[in-house]
Amino acid sequence: MLTSLSNFKTEPSEWAVEQPICISVNGIAHAVMMVTPSELENFSVGFAYGEKIISDIGQLRDISISEDTHNITTTDSDIPIACIVVDLTISPRQLKTYKEKQTFRRGLTSCGLCGSAALSEALPELEPLKPAGLPSPEELLDIHKRTQFTAGMHVAHLMNPSGTQLISQHDIGRHNALDKALGFALRKGINLHQHYAILSSRCSVELVQKAVRAGLSTLVHLSSPSNLAIEMAQHYQLNLIQVTRSGEIKVHARSQSDKVES
Q: Which residues are catalytic?
C-alpha cells in the first residue's frame, strides 16, 4: 500500500536550475529569458546571432555580465529573485541597423499587411546550406546512452565532421542549449559546415532556423521533429535526423547527397 504523497520529497541537488537573464543591447532593453546560469558568454553570443542582433562576431564589441535581485511582491511578502543582467555592446553601424529593426518590430500588429510582415519576421528567408554528408551510423550508435543530462535539463553536443565532441552545453531550455553550443563555435571561429549537433529534445522550427543561420550542416535529435521543422530543414538543405530509443535512425531531411561539398 502506498504511503501519503506528503512523505515523498526531492532535494535541491535534484532540481533543474533556471534564472531570469535580462538582455540589453547598448543599454536598450531587448528580452528577458529563462536560462540555466552556466556558459553565459556562449549563450549571449549564440542568442545575439540567432536574434540577428549581430550577423558577425566582429560586430560584438563587449559582453557585460552582472547579478541583481528583483523582488516579486505578493500579498503576504516579497519573493527575492536572483537574476542576471547582460548588456551586449555592438558596433555603431550595427547598432543603427538594430534600432531600425526594433522600431519595425514595435510597430507590428496582427492584422493586414502588418500581420504578413510579422510572419516574415518570424520566418525569415535564410541562405540555404551547402550540401553536406550525413554522420555515419557508427557515430550515432548508443547515442541515447552516451547523451547524459540531468533530469529536467536539455543538452546540446557539438560534434566535428569526424564525430569528435567539441563541447557539451546544458540548459533548462532546448533553444538555450543550442545557443550555447553555437555561441561557442562563433567565439572560436569554427566553420560549422559538415559539423553536427546532438540535441536531447524534439526539433522545432526555431532550432532549424538557428542551425541554418549558423551554417551548421546537421541536427540529430533524440525525439521526433515537428512537420514544419522537417519542411524547413528540407527547404534549407539541413540534414535532420532522429534516433529513437530503440536505436532506429530516421533521416527526416537531407541535403543533396550527390552534390556534397567538402
A: 111
